[in-house]
Structure to design on (66 residues):
């Protein structure tokens, strides 16, 4: 799966994002709208982690998607 499929199926993926990163609000998830850089930025902001760590977390999560 490539990231374009995540963007295209954002409505279905939103629940998985919420499960993984519970601190993200519904408004955050709606703003992200499938954009990877937005997702990384919101994770970084809500969890207070470095950008590299947020990128690694997203990579790990993305690798586990069916």
């Amino acid at each position: 799966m490539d990231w374009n499929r995540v963007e295209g199926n954002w409505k279905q993926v939103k629940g998985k994002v919420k499960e993984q990163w519970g601190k993200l609000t519904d408004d955050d998830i709606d703003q992200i709208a499938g954009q990877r850089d937005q997702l990384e930025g919101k994770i970084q902001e809500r969890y207070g982690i470095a950008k590299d760590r947020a990128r690694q977390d997203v990579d790990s999560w993305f690798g586990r998607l069916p």
